[in-house]
From TrEMBL:
Amino-acid positions noted as binding substrate in the UniProt annotation, renumbered to this chain: K265, Y322, R326, S330, R389, F390, H391
Species name: Duganella callida
Domain Pyridoxine 5'-phosphate oxidase dimerisation C-terminal residue range list: 370-411
Name this protein carries in UniProt: Pyridoxine/pyridoxamine 5'-phosphate oxidase
Manner of cofactor binding, per the entry note: Binds 1 FMN per subunit.
Record flagged with keyword Oxidoreductase: yes
Pathway stated in the Swiss-Prot or TrEMBL entry: Cofactor metabolism; pyridoxal 5'-phosphate salvage; pyridoxal 5'-phosphate from pyridoxine 5'-phosphate: step 1/1; Cofactor metabolism; pyridoxal 5'-phosphate salvage; pyridoxal 5'-phosphate from pyridoxamine 5'-phosphate: step 1/1
One of the GO biological process terms: pyridoxine biosynthetic process
EC number: 1.4.3.5
Residues that bind FMN: R260, I261, V262, L263, I264, K265, Y275, T276, K282, Q304, Q339, S340, W383, R393
HAMAP family recorded: PdxH (MF_01629)
Keyword terms of this UniProt record: Flavoprotein, FMN, Oxidoreductase, Pyridoxine biosynthesis
Family to which the UniProt record says this protein belongs: Belongs to the pyridoxamine 5'-phosphate oxidase family.
Amino acid sequence: MSNALIDTAPDFSQPIAVLKHCHDRIRKQLQTLQNLLAHLPKHGADADAQKAAQAVLKYFNHAAHLHHEDEEQNLLPMLQATARGADATLLEELTPAILQGHQQMDRDWSIIKSQLELIANGSSAALSSEDVARYCDAYAAHMAVEEGNIAPMAKRLFSEEQMAQLGSAMQVRRGIPPALPYSQVPEQQTQAVNPTVADGVVLADLRLDYGRASLTEHDVLDDPIAQFGKWFEEALQAKVNEPNAMSVATVDADGKPSSRIVLIKQYDQRGFTWYTNYDSLKGQQLRGNPHAALLFFWSELERQVRIEGSVVRTAAEESDKYFYSRPVKSQIAAIASQQSAPIANREQMEANYDAAAAVSGAHPVRPAHWGGYRLEPVRIEFWQGRRSRFHDRIVYQKQADGSWVKERLQP
Ligand SMILES: Cc1cc2nc3c(=O)[nH]c(=O)nc-3n(C[C@H](O)[C@H](O)[C@H](O)COP(=O)(O)O)c2cc1C
């Protein structure tokens, strides 16, 4: 029998084709394994059998592992970082089985390997047909899932840049100089992949070094409020956790800073609006110094937005409009709470709530100490995480004539 395997691998500029080529080579080696199974009872561990066993050993001991690593460390994490909607759901379903499949095949391989090593040196002709069948069937099913779902998804979703990253990572894994500069090649993961990814932790970890998107001077909008709107919509669509939560940093009379999370309720050309208690700590600090800094962090999109400017109170009508749009119980809570002032215990707070509810009835009136603040921005910076901590930052500065000038900052 012959193990000649002379075929030409596709170029790493087409990494998905390379992965398919790997599958074809796996299929050939599995065929050799099955041929060997048929050969051994008739011919024993003769020279052809030894040669076949050596070839199968060589392939599955080395090349197959590189292929699994390509998938576990690059292809799947990149897809996880890119897929949305139905693609993301399908990926969530398939990924644990793919990772478990790799581990199961590794275990099956170690059983077959010990039999092949004896055949390869001519000392045994025993090869278990059950072990071979289990290994071949597992690989066939595994490759069908990857070729039917994973590869087409990658071809559809990956940009040219992502394809180049994937191809370069695969080259580096094989000791080949990458097509991209090393700074742009996704870092190799050093930790083994845990197949139990139900909580998403493992793949979330793996994706950390992948640039989800880029941000250039040319693809940001000229108007930073419109650019913020674009990113905010994308955060909503991506269902990031609390997309409207932002940190508000203020300073006290001595210039000492403090920050807290509030929810943005409106943004427009005038600025960014939230609602709170004017007598709270932040309220007192803003009275003394109206300068503040807002911060959004949308971790799932690897994005941060920093906004700085001065803060004004919203008009009473605007505060009324929002106050009366809230559930009555929230209105009563706003009346009952002297936000940021100490209180003895929870019971006292409940008593204050009951008293406010008794006075307010079904129609509470907005108290003068509760309303909106609007930060009028003079500086807005958009930060997009990129590979190897070589991030993109574009900052907009407001000019005296009201126009915005943008420039890139170093990461
Ligand atoms: C997710 C989240 C959303 C919040 N939203 C608001 C809000 O919209 N307005 C508000 O006054 N406090 C909000 N808070 C509470 C503030 O973080 C803070 O405790 C409160 O405003 C008092 O801050 P201060 O003592 O610095 O004034 C929120 C807290 C969290 C964690």
